[in-house]
Design a protein that fits this description.
Blueprint: E1 2-3, H1 7-15, H2 20-23, E2 25-30, E3 33-40, E4 53-57, E5 60-66, H3 70-83, E6 93-96, E7 99-102, E8 106-111, E9 116-119, E10 122-125, H4 131-144, E11 150-156, E12 163-166, E13 179-185, E14 188-194, E15 209-213, E16 217-222, H5 225-228, E17 229-233, E18 243-249
Parallel strand pairs: 1-15, 2-4
Antiparallel strand pairs: 2-3, 4-5, 5-16, 6-7, 8-11, 9-10, 11-18, 12-17, 13-16, 13-18, 14-15, 14-17
Length: 257
């Protein structure tokens, strides 16, 4: 498993003094090669360019950047701690292979009025946007040029809280819109595993891709990533601090009941 240490390059760029030439470049990285290629960050793909890092493998297409500086990221985390109300009861459970389990983290759903999102056997109704969630959503939209009408909020109290391998491939998600993942709080490992290289019945040898998601970072999971790759947030016992993750999505209105 490879650790994409070049992630630290972005953090250092944004926290230090950037010159004009650095702002106009982004880093591209492939799984099999640690070398970086300079590219024009003012790509028409994004309406408000930031220093992006391209993460690619077979069927995997992601973009990573530091969206918020450390001080602002810390402030946003504290605001969300005051605003977000997490699910309880049946909405705090998931169904896996017919069995019901408690979610090993706190979870909440926010979005446009009337929207629902169903996964792991549970349908979640969107609560109205909070001011901080709206602010972060709009920052993601300005940076990516994509609009989002729903966000899933996951709070991990420490490294014991986790998320198992899964794909975000539900039918109500717009396949043309990336899933935008914003991380706040503790840095955590994030692992992609190809669908053909999972478990004892795996038919191919494809190396997992491991990222370290820094506080204030934005990860875009572009199509067809969620078709071919599972992702997870594994247990990390040495992590003692909490983390909040926001995954912004676009729900197709014609799939709503």
């Amino acid at each position: 498993m490879r650790l994409l240490t070049a992630m630290e390059t972005i953090v250092n760029k944004r926290s230090g003094a950037d010159d004009d030439s650095t702002r106009s470049q982004r880093k591209r990285m492939k799984q099999e090669d640690d070398s970086d290629e300079d590219e024009d960050a003012a790509d028409s793909e994004f309406s408000h360019p930031v220093p992006w890092q391209k993460i690619e493998a077979e069927g995997l297409d992601c973009d990573y950047a530091l969206l918020f500086h450390e001080k602002e990221a810390d402030h946003l985390f504290k605001q969300l701690e005051e605003e977000v109300v997490y699910s309880t009861g049946e909405e705090a459970k998931v169904q896996v292979f017919g069995k019901v389990y408690n979610i090993p983290r706190k979870q909440a759903s926010y979005g446009d009025a009337g929207l629902t999102y169903t996964y792991s056997g549970v349908t979640r109704l969107a609560c109205p946007w909070t001011p901080t969630l709206e602010y972060i959503r709009d920052a993601v939209t300005k940076t990516t040029g994509q609009t989002f009408n729903f966000v899933l909020v996951n709070r991990y109290k420490d490294g014991q809280d986790h998320m198992g391998e899964h794909r975000d491939d539900e039918k109500e998600l717009d396949p043309l819109c990336p899933i935008a993942s914003v991380s706040l709080g503790a840095a955590r490992d994030f692992i992609f595993r190809h669908r053909d290289a999972r478990g004892k019945q795996s038919c191919r040898q494809i190396q997992p891709v491991k990222l370290v998601l820094a506080p204030g970072s934005l990860l875009l999971m572009n199509s067809p990533t969620n078709t071919f790759w599972y992702h997870s947030l594994p247990v990390r016992k040495k992590v003692l601090l909490p983390r909040i993750n926001l995954t912004f999505r676009r729900i197709l209105l014609n799939c709503q009941k």
